[in-house]
Each structure stands twice: as C-alpha cells, then as structure tokens.
Write a structure and sequence with these properties.
This protein has 125 residues and is α/β, with parallel strands linked by helices. It has one domain: Rossmann fold (3-Layer(aba) Sandwich). It is 40% helix and 22% strand. The protein contains six helices and five strands. It has helices at residues 11-22, 39-46, 62-72, 87-95, 104-107, 111-116, and strands spanning 2-7, 27-33, 50-53, 77-82, 100-103. The chain has a five-stranded parallel beta sheet with strand order 2-1-3-4-5, sandwiched between helices. The radius of gyration is 13 Å and the shape is globular.
Amino acid sequence: MENVLIVDDSEPIRERLAALLAEAPQIRIVGQTGDGRVVLEAVRKLKPDSVILDIHLPGRSGIELLKELKARYPKVRVIMLTNYDGAGYRRQCKQLGADHFLNKTLEFDKVVDTLLKRGPSVRYP
C-alpha cells in the first residue's frame, strides 16, 4: 500500500487527484492540504510514503518544503506536480531531491503510474 499526502493550493486539483488515486486500490490518501505551513507537521503525523507537492502554495513555497522534506524525511518520495514547468524549476527541484517532476497540464494522468513504480526513482526528461 502506498500512503500519499496531497499538497496543492487548488481544491479542484486536490479533488481531481483524490478521484484519480481512488481508482488504484494500491494507493491510500492519508491526507490533503492546500496550506504550505502545515505540510511538515502533516508528514510527521501521517507518515506518508509519498507526497504530491505543488510549487505555488500559500504560507510556504513548495521549493522550500521540498528542501526541508528531503532533509528531515529522506525516504519520503516527493512528486512535484505543478504548472511551473520551466527548465529552471525542474533543475532546482532535481537538485533539491525531488524524485519526480510532472507538469499538471500535460502529465496529470501519469501520477498513478508514478506512485506505483518503485526502484530508482528520479525521473526527469
């Protein structure tokens, strides 16, 4: 079972992700938030295997959170799912330890497959 925390500032995106993930019996959503200020505490309490993380969040940026998540919880897999798809963001997220970087517009449907894959996890085009 893959336990997942969804972190996105858009409620419709969180709902869409939850509906998509609910179709995979191997995935369990342990929590959702749109507030960057509560992510670290949520990870501590909920102990997800993976975090789906947006870059733009109120309270704290996803980039800052990625850096701190990987420092505190290096085994937690972080999937950046964002519309900020520039090469600079990809490079920065890769350097900070993001395991995957997906574009919301073009790769939203790849989230389930990405969560279900294990092994070497850095996936960058």
